[in-house]
Amino acid sequence: MPLFASAACALALGCAALATARGQQPVQASGKAFAAQVEAGRTAYATHCAACHGADMAGGQFASSLTGAAFLAKWGGAPAQDLYTYIRNSMPPGGAGTLPDETYAALAALILSQNGGHAERALAPGDAASLAAATLPKPSLAADAVDEVGIGGISTRYPMPHRPEPADRFASFTPVTEAMLDDPAPENWMSWRRGHNGQGYSPLGQINTGNVGQLRLAWAQPLPTGETTNEPLVRDGVLYIYGYGDQVFAFDAATGRMLWRYQRTVPEGTVLSSKKTLALYGDKLFAATSDLHLAALDARTGRPVWDVPITGRPGFRNPGGPLAADGVIMQGLTTQEPGGGLIAAFDAETGKHLWTFDTVAKPGTPGGDSWNGLPADQRRGGSVWTSGTYDAASGLALWGVAQTYDTGPVRDRKPGLNNDGLFTNSTLAFEPRSGKLVWYFQHVKNDQYDLDWVFDRVIGTVEKDGHQRRVVITGGKEGLFDMLEVETGKYVDTVDMGLQNFITAIDPVTGDKTVDPALVPGRDKGSVFVCPHSGGGRNWSPTSFNPHTHSLFVNARDVCMEMVPSEKGFLTSGVNILYSPPKDGDGNYGVLQSLDMDTGEKRWEVRRRAPFDMGILTTAGGLLFTGGVDRQVLAYDQADGREVWRSALPGVPNGSPITYSVDGRQYVAMVTGEGNPLSFGLPEAFTPELPQPAVNNAALYVFALPEGE
User: Fold this and answer.
1) pTM, entire model
2) Which CATH architecture has domain 32-133?
């Protein structure tokens, strides 16, 4: 359990207790100064903590219990230094560090005392030795301990036979460095899409097109029931994953043995959601929470280190996940409220807020005159629900921004005004520490179709006109993939999957896209038929880029939409959106393509009836892994799209598959737990034979070749 978990309390931190815990008497402090400090902690607790954690330490509406086995299971053995640092860096929510340091030390002393710990002298904020010397006791089970009905405990009649010791995956732990994220060791999957470049490609090749048919389930772990869109991380034999209900797990990546578990307590009424990714940096694991906080956990123990609110503005969600780069943790948020989305940044070591960027430009700021004259409080959109990538060479963090649903006020340009709607449908390039916007590129201006460009940003090298070009590649739901120079944002080229029918031309110099005026929807027009549907086309599923062949692999749904006039409408221009098969469709709605990013040609295409809903993994073994709403996980030959392996899963595969290696053995891992929009499939009229499972199976599945193969 986390130490403290409330975002709403006056001081939602693990202050021990004002009174004794449920019938337990507090252990007496051994030193007079420490005893006096404990009493000062009681007074501070009564003022700042009891409303959330309860007067008896048992927990309250907004925060969990602070004594007993569950608390010590997380904090047992931790030095008071860790406890003090977490309290000091995280509490109260929205005002971390606002209490005197002596008060934070007194609260740490109270926690220590109420859990059976003691110290010979008071904990001094400026004295590292006093903080390190005092340690929270570890939970213990006496040999003769029994429960209320007389069961439990361990007999000492006979000696315990030898038992193998599990591997200590943290024995050689070293902090995660920038270099490790820029160029991960082959055995690791260090960040979303494996490394800073977002390619989703692994150099592992033990599993290949010749032996993939022998792939078997190596281990599995159930996850909390609910939507599960997370892409796990793996570092040196430890797999980290975010589960529904704001729970984070660390597993032994070779066996599935749980190493630690963090569970956050969120305020009552908080809407829970999964997250696409976690982030590793230094000795910490970073997780976004459903109550709009960013939590830093000790990567070895799961203990909270700091916990800060991302924003105090209401109406936000954060289904994406953090990006760690240059000692900074960045997080994007989504909203439909006035003012638009945002990206915020925090210092990785301390949690200090560094900057916030509003993704809907305000009047008087760059791009602020692009909203058709709308005042700031009437501009909506620009959500950020996918994590960014980072280019170490240029020092730029690259983020994608979504569209607006409030299309009516910006559809028709007013005389003398601009209605592009920045920064919707854009790539933004930031300096991570300063928040300086170095460049931006708007892929589609004034989007009237809900065909956003908020997906993965892939950094790679392509060959154009005989020259190697370092580019960032990203695509919108249209199935168009733009390439931009990483350092400048200059337009390079576009590759078209061939799914869309409304963009008639692309300027070869600027990348500006021309929309067929006859297909612009609105309540003042008849219905228009547009491909693809706003549900994709290309959608949530991340692509994968092979840096050796310059191939981009992408899946999509070949479904179109009829945009029907309506007085109210899904989009405020006055249209509702109906699903439709494409003209002359063959009933195969799932599309998987290999695109040559040098030439713009389609190398191959696979079509299947069940839509894909899972991201793509490619490997040096020539394999491509993905999955579909028919609960199948599949492997294809990258060279020609030939299916070479498949396995049925109990639930709908979600997130993206990953691969890693432990002790020389390669594994492929994936999660189930429908929750991303694609995992719910198409309307029943399209694929009636593919109903959703009656039970949402949320689990982690890990495959490998048989040992010895």
Assistant:
1) 0.89
2) Orthogonal Bundle (1.10)
